[in-house]
Design brief:
This protein is mostly helical. It has one domain. The protein is about 70% helix and about 0% strand. The chain contains five helices and no strands. Helix 1 crosses helix 5. The relative contact order is 0.15.
Length: about 100
């Protein structure tokens, strides 16, 4: 579990979320007190630790979905390929979401 969270944190940082080491450690500690197989508890715990603003929450939702749902199906990608793919996907999705009105906040 710890390695999975660390890979997610690396991907999230690469995509622009600012996540500190202490926030990562806090999250890992909190995950010991929930059922990680219950996705709503799992995602809320990560979101509470890693998404500090409205903009961060929007980005976090995209990253979470990509990392834990879409990219989990493609285990042939290396760690750096996954991070690169996530960064590109996020850029595309954020541009689409921004439209002409600027970023969603």
């Amino acid at each position: 579990m710890q390695n999975l969270i660390l890979k997610f944190v690396d991907s999230a940082r690469a995509a622009g979320l600012r996540i500190s080491t202490s926030e990562t450690l806090d999250c890992l500690n909190q995950l010991q007190h929930i059922d990680p197989l219950e996705e709503s508890q799992f995602s809320r715990t990560l979101r509470a630790n890693f998404a500090k603003s409205h903009r961060d929450q929007h980005l976090f939702n995209h990253l979470y979905d990509l990392f834990f749902h879409e990219l989990r199906d493609n285990e042939n990608l290396s760690g750096s390929e996954k991070i690169s793919h996530i960064k590109n996907e996020i850029k595309i999705r954020l541009k689409t979401d921004m439209g002409n009105d600027g970023p969603m906040v």
